[in-house]
UniProtKB/TrEMBL annotation:
Family, as annotated: Belongs to the NOS family.
Cofactor(s) needed for function: FMN; heme b; (6R)-L-erythro-5,6,7,8-tetrahydrobiopterin; FAD
Lineage start: Eukaryota, Metazoa, Chordata, Craniata, Vertebrata
Reactions accelerated catalytically: 2 L-arginine + 3 NADPH + 4 O2 + H(+) = 2 L-citrulline + 2 nitric oxide + 3 NADP(+) + 4 H2O
Molecular function terms from GO: calmodulin binding; FMN binding; metal ion binding; nitric-oxide synthase activity
Places the protein is found: Cytoplasm, Cytosol
Gene3D superfamilies assigned: 3.40.50.360
Sequence ranges assigned to domain Flavodoxin-like in this UniProt record: 1-106
Native organism: Aquarana catesbeiana (American bullfrog)
PANTHER family, sorted: NITRIC OXIDE SYNTHASE (PTHR43410:SF4), NITRIC OXIDE SYNTHASE OXYGENASE (PTHR43410)
The keyword Iron belongs to this UniProt entry's keyword annotation: yes
Protein name: Nitric oxide synthase, inducible
InterPro entries: Flavdoxin-like (IPR001094), Flavodoxin/NO_synth (IPR008254), Flavoprotein-like_sf (IPR029039), NOS (IPR050607)
Amino acid sequence: MHDYNISNLDKETLLLIVTSTFGNGDCPGNGETFKKSLFNLKQLHSKVRYAIFGLGSSMYPQFCAFAHTLDQRMVQLGASQISPTGEGDELNGQEESFLSWAVQTFKAACEAFKIRDRQNIILPKCYMSTETWNAEDYRLVNEAQPLEYIKGISI
């Protein structure tokens, strides 16, 4: 998060934020600058759509609080939420929660940007590999001890 230049926010049409919560609802260390910059903004000049997913542990009373803080601030700035803020609990199916949120958010983004069918979605070439995985070309080896890196890739 610390690499994001907040001045680019007005140029965004869609902003997806996935963030952890540190301690009792605080932002992670790399999110402090982003948070301060976001709270220093007066208003967005363009129509930004956004979605947020928070990662945390329900063991803490302020579960995913930073994600909800960002959500509230985006609304105050005039941004439009395209899907409800998601929560991933490390104690209870974090991966499943994220997958559900990601699918819902993708569908909402397609609707918001009027992307109706698969033919309109153009993926970068790096995501369209023609290679396939064939189980007969590989074998799994269960080791009682972790393999050394070089030994592991040379088997």
